[in-house]
Design brief:
By secondary structure, the protein is mainly alpha-helical. It contains eight helices and no strands. The longest helix is centred in the last third of the chain and has 36 residues.
């Protein structure tokens, strides 16, 4: 469990910071967010598709799946830039799924901490459940205007980012305790064996005539 956590904790930290930053923008300036996000996402999708197709050409390999994904990314990017209002309707689904996945990941961390015996596992499970509930609410989005929708998503993202910091703290605390109680075994030094030279001696009979 902790080996996997060590490898992804930096990415989890960046994701938490990203949730808080994006959530704050959506909460306080939703109009500007709508105006910018469609162009940024559209440009990123087009760049991703073009770069992916160029990499396939550079490697001289024909991979239909990658070519199809590249064409699809370019088409979606153009659609997002050309039809920003239509893309806005999809935002609750995108961010709702992100929140659901983040909540499920926190639940897994909480269950892992419970197996480890960490006393803070319950708080991690609770924030995971709340994040899943918020994700479901954002997916259903039973509210009216796009601006209000974005503000609800912004609040959910800010909560998700803050709760991820709590999960990171609990996981890192448990990891330190585990490493303290289970120190790594010292590496054994390999003994160097000295090479011994073997001299091959052959005995030849000597005649008496040769001695004289």
């Amino acid at each position: 469990m902790f080996e996997t956590f060590r490898s992804i904790r930096f990415h989890l930290l960046l994701a938490a910071l990203g949730y808080i930053a994006v959530g704050a923008v959506m909460l306080f300036i939703p109009d500007q967010f709508l105006a910018v996000v469609c162009y940024v996402i559209g440009a990123l999708l087009i760049a991703y598709g073009v770069i992916g197709m160029l990499m396939c050409w550079k490697d001289r390999t024909i991979r239909m799946a990658k070519i199809f994904i590249g064409i699809l990314a370019i088409a979606v990017g153009i659609f997002v830039i050309a039809q920003p209002k239509a893309f806005t309707a999809v935002l609750p689904i995108i961010f709702g799924l992100i929140l659901l996945l983040d909540g499920i990941l926190n639940l897994r961390h909480g269950i892992g901490l419970k197996k480890f015996g960490d006393p803070g596992f319950l708080s991690v499970i609770i924030v995971g459940v709340i994040t899943v509930v918020l994700g479901a609410i954002v997916l259903i989005h039973p509210y009216g205007t796009a601006k209000f929708t974005l503000r609800i998503i912004g609040v959910a993202l800010i909560y998700s980012g803050i709760s991820d910091f709590l999960v990171l703290y609990r996981m890192n605390h448990a990891r330190l305790i585990y490493e303290r109680d289970n120190p790594p075994e010292p590496k054994k030094k390999r003994q160097r064996h000295k090479k011994t030279k073997v001299i091959d001696v052959h005995a030849h009979p000597v005649d008496d005539d040769e001695e004289e």
